[in-house]
Amino acid sequence: MTVKKGCITKERGIEILNRLSRIEGQIRGMEKMVKDERYCLDVLQQVSSTFEALRGVSKVIMRNYLEICATDALQSKRKEKMEEIYKEMMDIIYKFAK
């Protein structure tokens, strides 16, 4: 995997970090539920909520990627940059289409 400097806007970065903090709290809550021997379906409900919260984070990051990273690369008119971004886009689409 290629390591690149991020392009997440400051506003979206704050939003993502806030969402991740809430998710961290959800994870700690689930740990406590298991330790407290809560009913399985109660724990599963929290697992489902956490998955949806993570999907929300991925949507924010995906929107940022498409609006900034991909758009910049496609507008550059540099063939190698455009081909690289198309490959990245296809890889991420296949990953999220599962």
Structure description:
- By secondary structure, the protein is mostly helical.
- The protein has a single domain (10-96), classed as Methane Monooxygenase Hydroxylase, Chain G, domain 1 (Up-down Bundle), CATH 1.20.58.
- The protein is 82% helix and 0% strand.
- The longest helix is centred in the middle third of the chain and has 36 residues, at 40-75.
- The protein is elongated, with a radius of gyration of 18 Å.
How is this fold's topology laid out?
Layout: H1 10-35, H2 40-75, H3 79-96
Helix pairs in contact: 1-2, 2-3
**Strand percent estimate:** under 5%
Radius of gyration, whole Å: 18 Å
- CATH architectural designation: Up-down Bundle
Share in helix: over 70%
In DSSP terms (H or I, runs of 4 or more residues), the helix count works out at: 3
CATH superfamily: Metal-sensitive repressor, helix protomer
Structural class: mainly alpha
CATH topology: Methane Monooxygenase Hydroxylase, Chain G, domain 1
- Regarding CATH, which class? Mainly Alpha
**Order of helices and strands, N to C?**
HHH
How much is the average pLDDT?
Answer: 91
User: What is the straight-line distance between the termini?
Assistant: 20 Å
How many distinct folded domains? 1
Shape: elongated
